[in-house]
Amino acid sequence: ESAEDVNMLRQSLRSVSAVRNAVKAQGSRAMSSYSLPSLPYDLGALEPVVNTEIMTLHHGKHHATYVANLNAAMEKYADAEAKKDVAAMIALQGAIKFNGGGHVNHSIFWTNLCSPKDAVAVGDASPELAKMIDAQWGSLDAFKTEFNTKTAAVQGSGWGWLGYDKTAKKLAIATCANQDPLSTTGLVPLLGIDVWEHAYYLQYKNVRPEYL
Question: What's the CA gap between 36 and 144, in Å, rounded?
């Protein structure tokens, strides 16, 4: 193997390991056996904010496809790894990152949502988080304005995130392209908003800020 092959393999292994660890953090039990998580509410529970048709397609079709493709990619990766097929391992890196990230991100996303009738103030749900938001942004409204502005500005498809920086001990607003998981940046994901069009277009058309 050339030095270039070795470096590419190391990059591939780091990428796959990062996504695998992120997936495991969502409760998956073993490589190549990831499953679609059940929603913690009915498909129509988010009405009128997110309609039933969107939730049915988003969870039952889009997320399910990420899970199926992740399992297929990880099975191929395990086979390539057993055969020491470096080229095949590298070639699968993109599929694992994209589909693994899609599974991780959506698994977090569903738990960030609730029925409008069950919504509570941030201060009641998490007094510690509310204090940190006030300390860094001055108010919840100021945080929401910055979060929504940055998330609405994501080009193409991606995610807006509120994460926690364990080193700086601070909150951070971040955006990620496509299905890249926030955890691969070093931030702990707290709140994620999907701004792929499949998350809102059937209801909000091309007016992303109204969805946010």
Answer: 30
